């Protein structure tokens, strides 16, 4: 079996605002892609394009409006809670801010022992320590520097490595990493995302790497999908998409790497920017209003995918 995740025509519509001024946005619009075993798949795009919503659907935190998510051939979207919980071990996540994943008053090693006990992975303390050592080693942290410490005793970069080690405790097949380095010091980012490659090679891990940063994406990804206002607008092998982009949006994104919006948290109240709202509401291509190569048809119709040089592009220029 090659395919780990098969996402088919996934759609998520959010309805926001008060009852008198309801706005509907299709945060994920007919998204289809596969994520293979031992593959690093990057979802890239500026803030507010639907990346986190896809991650939340995969993790079971949001229900899709329509479409399917097959995981190892099982449809996650129609699964009952109990059945789904079997996959909790298998799909792990790492988030933007490592400090919010740990209680500041609790020693970090506690979380590790707890996970190993709850999932019945280790039977004795010694067995647990061996597993923890192995996972820490994989992210470049020694057990000695890790044990008996509180979150504040680590730097952001170290704590993010530790979150990754923690996610490995259950031997997952899939790691979902949503902007994992956007709060980490720029000089350390590459060394952390490079871990994904090492973990792919060492444990056969697949990674859904979510980022707005094309530089790190280029160095670690096997495949890249560029997202814009709910649509995957271009996807294919990383070097093709990023070195020789086809879609005018990908070209623009490559020139000006936008910063992630730190205000957009997983749980924050949603307030759409005017531009965002306007673009989501567009009839045709959502990028038409900003596209340097826009044509008449782009404002009326949403293009299909066209295959160019092994890459799928949602743009009328390639009709
Ligand atoms: N729970 C929600 N309720 C209403 N709108 C939401 C919700 N979550 C996300 N959105 C909206 O969906 C769009 C995509 O959001 P998100 O998936 O967080 O994008 P990204 O991760 O690419 O920044 C945004 O316009 C956001 O405001
Ligand atoms: Mg996000």
From TrEMBL:
<dbReference type="InterPro" id="IPR013563">
    <property type="entry name" value="Oligopep_ABC_C"/>
</dbReference>
<dbReference type="Pfam" id="PF08352">
    <property type="entry name" value="oligo_HPY"/>
</dbReference>
<keyword id="KW-0067">ATP-binding</keyword>
<dbReference type="InterPro" id="IPR027417">
    <property type="entry name" value="P-loop_NTPase"/>
</dbReference>
<keyword id="KW-0813">Transport</keyword>
<dbReference type="InterPro" id="IPR017871">
    <property type="entry name" value="ABC_transporter-like_CS"/>
</dbReference>
<protein>
    <submittedName>
        <fullName>Oligopeptide/dipeptide ABC transporter, ATPase subunit</fullName>
    </submittedName>
</protein>
<keyword id="KW-0547">Nucleotide-binding</keyword>
<dbReference type="GO" id="GO:0015833">
    <property type="term" value="P:peptide transport"/>
</dbReference>
<dbReference type="InterPro" id="IPR003593">
    <property type="entry name" value="AAA+_ATPase"/>
</dbReference>
<dbReference type="Pfam" id="PF00005">
    <property type="entry name" value="ABC_tran"/>
</dbReference>
<feature type="domain" description="ABC transporter">
    <location>
        <begin position="5"/>
        <end position="254"/>
    </location>
</feature>
<dbReference type="InterPro" id="IPR003439">
    <property type="entry name" value="ABC_transporter-like_ATP-bd"/>
</dbReference>
<dbReference type="GO" id="GO:0005524">
    <property type="term" value="F:ATP binding"/>
</dbReference>
<dbReference type="GO" id="GO:0016887">
    <property type="term" value="F:ATP hydrolysis activity"/>
</dbReference>
